[in-house]
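lol so apparently i was supposed to do this last week
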Amino acid sequence: MIIIKALLKNKPEFGAEYVEINDPVPKAKEIMIKTKAAAICGTDLHHYEWDETAINFTKNFQVKFPLILGHECSGEVVEIGSEVTNIKVGDKIALETHIPCGICYQCRIGNLHNCQNMGLYGTTYNGCFADYAIAPAKVAFVLPEGVSYEEGALFEPSGVAMRGIEEATIQPGDTVLIYGCGPIGQFAIQMANICGAAKVIAIDINPFRINMAKELDVITINAQEEDPVEAVKVLTRDKGGVDIAIELTGAASVYQNIFKMIRLEGRLVTIGHPSKEVAVNFTRDINQKGLAIKGIFGRRIWNTWQHLAELVVNEKIDLLKVVTNRYKLKQYEEAFKKAHEDSGKILFV
Ligand SMILES: [Zn+2]
Ligand SMILES: [Zn+2]
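anyway here it is w/ zinc ion bound
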């Protein structure tokens, strides 16, 4: 019998408890991992604090209680259920958060990431903020040789950036705008650079994040210190704007100016989720501009993961550059507090 330690949320109100759970056993189609690294995501903070975003979340997904929090992780497989054939004990894996049903229309046509009956690891299913975690075997991605556990734990969030980059279809010589320098923005900057962008411009309002971005090959704009529309105009000269913009902030106010920064016939990829409806002038900003828009929700399973693995193994990107703090799981209160302060990605190790 094993006793595990887990960060458990018992009810829909602020907080969670660090508790012991006796003898968890994987079901037939599940695996159990010894968690080696787990990252804090915005969703975890919302769940922990049970704020308005978390409450809104419950309109789309059935949040499970009690719930082991956490969904971005890697680990070593220590046990498999009786029907698991794709994963074996000893495998080094990372987990996909979107749990596809495998039978709906979207799953059948290959859009598993946007399944019509999607489960969410760490929301509708117990998560990974625990020293041992159980997960459906179908969301385990075997990490190739050369990928560390810490890097593996970052495949899920950096996979969002990767998928945004896939849909951005950057051509050599393009100017790419990354709107938002949080962890996913920082992954996206690295990726846009290796896709042949002549220039990557990054906007944020947080000096700490801008300074982190400055370590990468990018031109930064602090939107609180200068007018980002004017700054982008100067940087893009006669093009009249960037070829491609990737929106990561989810701030509704960004939509008041982002269209002005994209050139005619340009492309907008949206990743950040605004918490309220956004007014858009379709005539001016989309039709007359000839703008293409693509929304991103999750990583393509497993296309995005494979692309990302190749980039990491071949050292084209450095995921760990985005990590600023590491904690033990029992220090969760301190870690969650830090996540609200100046920080990049925070890991439990
Ligand atoms: Zn996440
Ligand atoms: Zn499905």
